[in-house]
Amino acid sequence: MTNEKDGRSVDTQKVPSGWLNRTVAGAGITSAFGDFCYETTTVILPGFLAVLGIPAAALGLIEGVADAVSSFTKMASGYIADKLGHRKRLVLVGYALTPIGQVLIALAAGWPLLLLGRLVSWFGKGLRGPLRDAIVIQAVSRQTRGRAMGFHRAVDTIGAVLGPLLGVSVLGWAQTFHWDDASGPFRLVLWLSVVPGALAVVAFLTLVNDPERSPNPGLRLFSTLRGLPVSFKRYLAAVGIFGLGDFSHSLLILGATQLLTPSFGVVHAAQIAGLLYVGRNIVQVVASYPIGACADRVGALALLVGGYALGALTGVLMMLAFYLSSASIPLLAGIFLIAGLYVAVQDALESTVSADMVAQDTLATSYGALGTVNGCTKFLSSSVLGLLWTGVSPIVGFGLAAIVMVTGTFALMRIQRERPRG
Length: 422
Fold this sequence. Notes:
Shape: globular
Low-confidence stretches: 1-17
Mean pLDDT: 82
Strand content: under 5%
Keywords: Membrane, Transmembrane, Transmembrane helix
Structural class: mainly alpha
Pfam families: MFS_1
CATH superfamily: MFS general substrate transporter like domains
Helix content: over 70%
Organism: Robbsia betulipollinis
Distance between the termini: 26 Å
Protein name: MFS transporter
């Protein structure tokens, strides 16, 4: 809610110390359960594909197609929410789809059902993402958005730490049992991951308050998109360029698994790669809130430029690891640490920057546009990297990704330099 004072719009909600309300906390807890569910799959999926005999190109395409479905869903869900005036029911449906997708993946014997399961999960992720972020942003004042989003991402990522950690532990424990085939331990982990997915639905239903807003039946998607500020469109272009190199981190796990397999064997290599991914997520948990709080003081856009630069560095170092054929765990740990830092910046601040550029009555639609750009470009990035990995070399794939991310970083830097003058 805003007032006019001294000729400008100001927030009447003054919550310098009260930003951590029930809705922000509830959304974080829900996201933690959701991440616990699907990040468990992320960390064991490369190993699961390996025992099923599915190549790296398939993983890149599966993750890319899933990201694309998620991105288009984000656009539709944001527009529908702004038009109809309610968001909570759509978010609940989105969270419910994640455990359903896990069940399909657990049943998969080849890539078709695995792809379907990932699509169902990512459709749910796309449905809920922009609406949940809009709920969190509008539950706090403008001056505390960075802290709220940083806190949300930190709690969200706790699930992304605990899920893979438990998944890797259960995977190791399951090796002590007799299985008819090598995929048995992986399937057990997938079945167990359904439980936190169901708890996410319960948590959002009971903890998050999102009063229905006035419907806007005259809202039209394409006219709304055309009417978005020019500065926001330029920002989306820079995000898109970076996204063309910003591959799925399932491919980081796969890379670590392949590099470590000659020394440790595929199952133990998958466990080590999974623990490295857990380390990446721990870094994200620790860094997310401080990054958000810092952004409230010095500006989110400048920090986002630095985060993008770290993303490009991740691609460079992964290319170097393959060039050296390095099974060095310290080198791989450093790569995953840097990846955790850049994802912490990206997840906490892309939405914060967007909220500063657009009108609040089209916030969900704007978040949908942001999600669509991210998803479409990640589809291309993950698919191209997977194909180059299989057809040419992972060195070429990661090198190309790094070059594109550097280009996106410079595009965002230009916007950051020009924005104060605008």
